[in-house]
Design a protein that fits this description.
The chain has 252 residues and is an alpha/beta fold. It has one domain: Class I glutamine amidotransferase (GATase) domain (Rossmann fold, 3-Layer(aba) Sandwich). The protein is built from 7 helices and 11 strands. A 9-stranded mixed beta sheet has the order 2-1-3-4-11-10-9-6-7. Strands 5-8 form a two-stranded antiparallel sheet. The chain starts with 12 loop residues before the first helix and ends with a helix. Bound molecules: glutamine. Glutamine binds next to α5.
Amino acid sequence: MVSGARAGALCSRRDLVAQPPAGAGSAPDPGPPPEGQQRPLAAGVLAVQGSFAAHARALARLGVEPRLVRRAEDLEGLRYLILPGGESTVLSHFLEQQGFGAALAARLGSGELAALGTCAGAILLGREPAGGGPRTGRQPVRLGLAPVEVERNAYGRQLDSFRGPVELAGSFAAFAARLAAEPSPRAAPPPERFEGVFIRAPRFVALGPEVEVLGRHGGEPVLVRWRRLVLAAFHPELTADLRLHRYLLEEL
Ligand code: GLN
């Protein structure tokens, strides 16, 4: 297990569903993909609370019609699911309703469904820190599927939210290098870096042996993969950079 240091905090629900930070989304929208390039992928977003609309827009920009997942039936035939940032206690309350969490855990656990969990979504996919960590107020019930200990609100309070570089690693760095070689109609982001928007972000304080680090901020893991689950401590949907969404659809 690898331990990370402790630090500060957070996001309000309003911030998560509201405007992207200044500068985000400034790249021109590529618009709908040309005829014949629609991707017939069954990809969805857990659309209960939090930043799901921005993730749905990111999928749409990639030519994938996003399925908004709100009931266990919506998981039928689904291959990719994004669990957005938001408030993990609210999301987990929803998961406890009508067997949704059990249905979701079964599909994720069997590997038939791949997932990208961002911020609160990563908290749900991961596990509680073994040491307990600071626990005040209501706590989310986690799916606990990925062997990653995720400490909530580990960077401090809402005001401690920040943007910062994520240095790419492992198979995501290799994927980004391949994308950098593609002809692009607009300025491509640097292949070795991703801009991280950290909002009341969690920290990955311990990683199991099979966990691959895909990105680091300040030397600490902030983007990790275990099998077909990817956990991001930041919000990739709040920038114009679609590479992580592409990684989900093309590499998992
Ligand atoms: N702090 C939030 C929680 O524990 C997560 C923050 C986010 O999703 N940006 O639910």
